[in-house]
Design goal:
alpha+beta, 982 residues, 7-stranded mixed β-sheet, 50 strands, 21 helices
Length: 982
């Protein structure tokens, strides 16, 4: 397809031709084009379909505010939907497809919804499809969901790379238009560290789209010269293709840099970088966005904003049409007409809603004063316009200008509210700006070039002087103040056809009036009732005209009607960029146990436990599945000896003269009497008396204790202890440090545990039952003098020890233990076997300490000491917490031993209906016990300690199962504890 709309000049590289494909048609463009400019150059006016009614839509704007030209880029795994064609840089081989249509773009089968528009007006989803009621779930919702949406995902893993970056500066300048360039230049010359960020790939902003002059040269040339000077400064960082999308606390800004989106091949580099920019001060110079005027059928392809037409003409050397009329309510629209005429494009008429003389002379154009456009013709491309006086004018493009809205979005990100200025008929930033931010240029309502330059320079100087820099005070660049007067004219009342406000979400003037009639008059209600401004463009072109129409309906002014405020992001941010490298294997940080390498080399299957990767089981040849491996590990441990890496348990070193008193207040049971060389099990309560965490604490010396916590709560418990130390009892002499990473710790369990350890622990240490009984602890040495700690504690119910060595010896220690245990057939076991043995022994763990159970529920009520105070002790004794009929932790086994228990099942008394009214409790943990040969479980049931031997039903509606179970002791193995004391 030839570039029939390409004209002379522009800032594209005409010496190089690029081929790209739109749908099934190959077209030509040039470096410096956007996809939108190249499509217009090739005469492609129809580019998409609207969201709701599937009306034909063309390109409306030339920037990130584009509501219509959303396309799907690339193919396969690289496919990217909902991309604005106005911001896509053209490159060789680019493929783009239109979206949101069934069938072809030209013949969209879903366009039938436009015929149904009388039934699909604002709020239809609240009022229609309500009957018959059963149809909603079976028919209406599936059909609506299948029809909704814009682009489509490839459903394949994204092959692109994303990264995150951190940058620091004295002054962040947001926007590289005339005021932004002036601000950055002033701050850079003063020696401040400056970051200049702009979403465009060519700095200059509107200067690239205009024919205005600065210091006697073309505005675009002046911008290029300033950029070259800034690029040569070591203290200035230029960030093109970078959108600052959010203003956050303490001068922090979020920014998205598109690094390789403009390349056919990223070459292994990140596609996008999500930046966190820390600034001492910021100047927002984000410019302004032109708004349309609402009139009948104002959404035809070929109807564009006048400023966008001027941008395509002057920057890209493209005319969107050859018979281009202009409809305006302000002087700026006339500049588009003048530029078109100067470039040889015929302008049949300039229709001005004001009855006033023309501010500019436009050769060959009729000036139609005090008029408006009431209708247009041309479903897939405008062919003619009809005026309020009945005139019909043939056109192939209509440039519309309804005035300019300062881009105040980032000023609202910390709840700031914009204020109305009657002289420009727009909102400008209010006084409540994010701390450290100032606003300049068109974003602050300075809509002329000279004013924008002066304001940018002055604002930057004021900002850096607050930081101690001396302003350069160079002369302000000389520029003209172009005419910019306008009228508050929002829509053509004489129009009888639908007049569109939000072109992406198909919101019309009629919808706003309906919202008023139905009582949704507050701006937030209007937004949600009509979906106004809720599309990907966030209503950048639609909000103000809609507010004006609501103001007319209510008889109020626009400032009295109010406006919504904006939240981040300013423009859409891909989820891939938000995730960065945190995907797949690196989705979140993970930690490796000291023996990870040994476990990996010995066939371990790993599982995520909090942030840790732990060995779950060790498969051996001939085993048919994980159950075979786990059963073998449990049996081998109970028959001889097993070894498990338990390093992940939290370890907190507690020292000081008052360490014992501190622990006495932390745990609900007493610790003041714990002897040196002994370990005690402890239970912590929350302030409200609910069980918080459990573990053991060993007294290594007079003022030295070592606490262990559960893996899941290691960090939370440490924070809790620090809070208690610093805030609750700052007078206590106690000091804490987390040593979880400092010590590798291994459980050695089974009848031969002592025999194995005697081969590892140096001979001078007596670990006989008499010298080192159950719950003993002490400092030892291993392997000829290596320092270690030994604790005689058991989570398995067997004779067991936990031995700790400095973490750097962890991997070697695992090998030493396995070598020493070879004659006893020592077996490594993972977390699954560990869980089986703890359930067999009746130990509570995370499933039981779930934040809703008490010491009383856990059968540990007597542990809550009444002789001292501790966190949660008082509230744990509330009557409701210690009821006689409270749920209690007990064991369960199936009456039919072949049945398999399921965690989460609820207990129902025999003969009762399975309902919440008859709920007696629930199953918390289950396992198959190779020692007993059947499934076992732990759970809570009302008065469980008084009901042993009773049979109840374990009902699981989700799994559709119901099993009879017997209530038994939670201690399935060695209930008297003889093994662990052997």
């Amino acid at each position: 397809m030839s570039q029939k709309n390409r004209i002379a000049d522009g800032q594209v590289d005409r010496a190089t031709e690029l081929s790209f494909r739109f749908n099934d048609t190959w077209m030509k463009g040039h470096p410096g084009d956007t996809l939108a400019s190249a499509l217009l150059a090739n005469g492609q006016r129809l580019v998409g379909r609207s969201f709701k009614y599937h009306r034909p839509r063309g390109i409306l704007t030339a920037g990130s505010e584009e509501p219509n030209a959303l396309v799907q880029l690339r193919s396969g795994a690289h496919q990217e939907p909902n991309t604005r064609a106005t911001t896509v840089e053209l490159f060789e081989g680019l493929t783009a497809t239109s979206q949101n249509h069934r069938g072809s773009l030209e013949f969209d089968l879903m366009a039938v919804t436009d015929l149904l528009s009388p039934f699909l007006s604002a709020g239809f989803y609240y009022k229609t499809f309500m009957w018959p009621r059963a149809f909603w779930e079976k028919l209406y919702e599936p059909v609506i969901r299948a029809s909704a949406g814009l682009g489509s995902l490839s459903m394949k893993d994204d092959p692109d790379r994303y990264d995150k970056g951190f940058a620091y500066c004295d002054l962040l300048v947001i926007g590289a238009g005339p005021s932004g360039l002036a601000a950055a230049l002033a701050a850079g010359r003063a020696g401040a560290r400056v970051i200049l960020a702009d979403e465009d790939f060519r700095p200059g902003g509107r200067l690239n789209a205009e024919t205005l002059e600065i210091d006697g040269m073309r505005g675009a040339d002046w911008a290029a010269g300033v950029v070259a000077e800034l690029a040569a400064m070591d203290n200035v960082r230029l960030m093109t293709r970078t959108t600052v999308y959010g203003a956050y606390d303490h001068g922090t800004y979020g920014a998205l840099e598109r690094c390789t989106d403009h390349l056919a091949d990223a070459g292994g580099k990140p596609r996008q970088i999500l930046w966190r920019i820390y600034s001492k001060r910021a100047v927002l110079t984000a410019g302004a966005t032109e708004r349309p005027i609402a009139f009948g059928n104002n959404d035809r392809p070929g109807i564009m904003l006048a400023g966008a037409v001027r941008a395509y003409l002057n920057r890209y050397g493209v005319t969107p049409g050859h018979e281009v009329a202009v409809f305006t309510n302000n002087d700026d629209g006339w500049r588009t007409a003048a530029d078109l005429a100067a470039r040889g494009v015929h302008v049949p008429a300039v229709i001005d809603s004001r009855d006033a003389p023309a501010p500019l002379d436009v050769s060959g154009a009729r000036h139609i004063r005090g008029a408006g456009v009431v209708d247009t013709v041309g479903r897939k491309g405008i062919k003619s316009i009809t005026l309020t006086d009945g005139q019909v004018i043939p056109v192939d493009c209509l440039a519309v200008s309804g005035g300019w809205n300062p881009n105040v979005h980032l000023t609202c990100h910390q709840r700031g509210r914009p204020v109305w200025r009657d002289d420009i008929n727009a909102f400008i930033p209010g006084d409540a700006l994010p701390p450290g931010m100032a606003v300049a240029g068109a974003a602050n309502g300075a809509l002329t070039l000279s004013a924008a330059l002066a304001q940018g320079q002055a604002t930057a100087n004021a900002q850096i002087e607050q930081l101690g820099f001396t302003a350069s005070h160079t002369a302000t660049p000389r520029a003209e103040d172009e005419p910019h007067r306008g009228a508050a004219f929002w829509h053509v009342r004489e129009s009888t056809k639908r007049a569109w406000l939000d072109q992406q979400n198909d919101v019309t003037v009629k919808d706003v009036k309906q919202s008023y009639r139905e009582g949704f008059r507050a701006v937030e209600h209007l937004k949600r009732y009509t979906t106004l401004g809720m599309a990907t463009d966030q209503g950048k072109t639609a909000n103000i005209p809609a507010l004006a129409i609501m103001a007319e309906c209510t008889g109020k002014t626009i400032p009295e009607t109010g406006t919504t405020i904006f939240r981040p992001p300013y423009t859409p941010v891909p989820l891939g960029a938000l995730g960065g490298r945190s995907r797949g294997h690196d989705f979140r940080p993970f930690r490796l146990t000291p023996s990870h390498q040994w476990a990996k080399e010995n066939g371990a299957t790993f599982v995520e436990v909090g942030n840790w990767l732990r060995a779950q089981w060790y498969a051996r040849p001939g085993e048919q599945g994980w159950r075979d491996s786990v059963d073998r590990e449990v049996t081998a441990t109970r028959n001889s000896v097993g070894i498990c890496d338990v390093t992940t348990l939290g370890k907190i070193d507690i020292q000081g003269r008052d360490a014992g008193e501190f622990l006495n207040r932390i745990y609900c049971n007493g610790f003041a009497t714990l002897a040196v060389g002994k370990v005690r099990y402890g239970l912590m309560l929350r302030e409200d008396g609910i069980a918080y965490d459990d573990g053991t604490t060993a007294r290594m010396s007079e003022n030295h204790y070592v606490m262990t916590t559960t893996t899941a709560n290691a960090v939370l418990v440490f924070r809790r202890l620090e809070f208690a130390r610093q805030c609750l009892w700052p007078d206590l002499d106690v000091h804490l440090i987390s040593t979880t990473d400092g010590w590798a710790q291994f459980a050695v369990a089974g009848p031969n545990a002592r025999n194995l350890l005697r081969k590892v622990i140096d001979a001078e240490h007596d670990i006989s039952n008499e010298a080192f009984p159950f719950m003993a602890c002490g400092e030892v040495t291993v392997c000829g003098g290596t320092p270690a700690r030994l604790f005689r504690i058991s989570f398995s119910g067997e004779l067991a020890y936990e031995i700790a060595v400095p973490a750097r010896y962890g991997n070697a220690m695992m090998g030493v233990l396995m070598q020493a245990g070879a004659e006893y057939d020592a077996t490594p076991y993972g977390t699954e076997a560990l869980s089986v043995m703890r359930i067999e022994k009746g130990h509570a763990a995370g499933n039981e300490l779930n934040g809703q159970t008490t010491a009383h529920n856990l059968g540990m009520g007597r542990m809550v000491s009444q002789k001292k105070d501790s966190i949660g002790a008082v509230l744990s004794q509330r009557p409701e917490m210690i009821r006689d009929d409270a749920i209690k932790l007990v064991g369960f086994r199936p009456v039919n031993r072949a049945d398999k228990l399921a965690a989460g099942s609820h207990f129902i008394t025999r003969g009762d209906t399975a309902s919440m009214d008859n709920d007696q409790g629930w199953m918390t943990s289950v396992a198959y016990s190779p020692s007993l040969g059947h499934s076992i479980g732990l759970g809570f049931i009302k008065r469980g300690d008084q009901r042993q031997g009773e049979i109840v039903r374990a009902v699981n509606p989700l799994m559709g199962s119901e099993i009879e179970v017997e209530i038994v002791s939670a201690h399935f193995i060695d209930p008297e504890g003889e093994r662990l004391r052997a």
